[in-house]
Protein 1
Amino acid sequence: MGIGLVNAVSVDEEGRFHLKDYRIYSKKEDGKTKIQLAHEMVQKSKSEIVLFDSWYASKYFMKFLNEGGKIFYSTLPSSRVFYDEQNKKYKLKDYEFTEEEKKEGKLVQLNKMNFKVRIFHSCVKKGEVETIVTNDIDQSSLEESEKMLSLRWGIEEFHREIKNVTGIEKCQARKSRIQRNHICCCLMAWQFLKAEARKRELTIYALHQSQSDNFIRSQLFKPKLKFA
């Protein structure tokens, strides 16, 4: 996000997403990269499968996940280098997948990595493709890999909702601590609004817009949301 928020979002069996953890990216203050912040959150998580976009698909992060016994799915930039089973070197953008490899994936070893991964050639839009990567080498279905990776959409939905209903980007304070407090309050407000929207079978936007109904008035008068 534009405010430098790194989030860990889980998806339940019904496809609903939940905010599990977050970190505020401020390298000038703590010296940590976004990948290091993601590492911290995953280290605390009990999730067995981790999904992330290509920005986080570094050898450091993928090696950490693999050694930790976690299955991951992500996408790779076209510049990544890999070695096939005959130890022949390729760049993703130069490699032509066979029809069989497009359906079942290809077992490879990425450059400077010490374990095998499976890559899939996925058509996103007409004329646009992306390479899916997973350390689940027994995965042999492009369709299942695309389905798994599509669960990442929850993070985009979360970003859109929190920007539109909480005003998370609108804090004008200059002090870091005030900004952090504002972000924390917005995240807590989103959690509460999302839970109430699900209970009432509404979208979070519909609930947010109904600011004159009895529920909103009651919460303004005597809020259930407790702040520590």
Note: Residues 155-221 form one domain.
Protein 2
Amino acid sequence: MNGLVIAAARSGSGKTTLTLGMLAALRARGLTVAPAKTGPDYIDTAILARVAGRPAVNLDPWAMSASRLRALATAPAEAADLLLVEGVMGLFDAAADGHGSTADLAAALDLPVLLVLDAERQSQSIAALAHGFAAWRDDIRVAGLIVNRVASARHEAMLRAALAAVDIPLLGVIPRREGLTLPDRHLGLVLPGEIADFDAVVSAAAEAVEAYLDLNRVLSCLHPWRALVPPPLRGRSGRREGPGR
């Protein structure tokens, strides 16, 4: 299965906005992306489907068997260039019985994880966080890191220096920006039809993805790897052009 799981260390790290930006940016480059959401949340799937221009599927590793998850994911994945799965809460957060996490889904589908880390109010400690998440389970592969909400160029330099000690590719560093937050309420996000500036938020997220992520390197993380060659990108995070391994 050709796909990626977008996960985070905790809720509120920006993974939904980042996933929407990636969907919009990849779609603008002519790629067909099948969206999916970890768990039963119907609001998130409605948001993902609107941006992807195709239905989004719920993949619930607590309620569904591994074979059921693979069956539900395979059809949309085979009809698209890739499957992009948004995680829920933190990567290892699950139900009270310890089952149903985003990590469980990634393991069931044998998909690599892109880990979103919120850099707000931390600097060098982010390296320990990244290392711990990558090493916690041996059936999970954290294929790349995306650092979000970076305060300044100096802050970015400190984060990059710390993460250089972690053997995980840094695929993007996104500065703190206004207009990159979707409104929410007690039980989750608001439906896209209820958000007056929804399209503007998605457009801003896509611009941030284009500017600060190396999408060529992101695509190189796909499992199994398949050549997807969008036009050359010049993201701030990368040093190479074209897909890399």
Note: The first helix runs from residue 15 to 28.
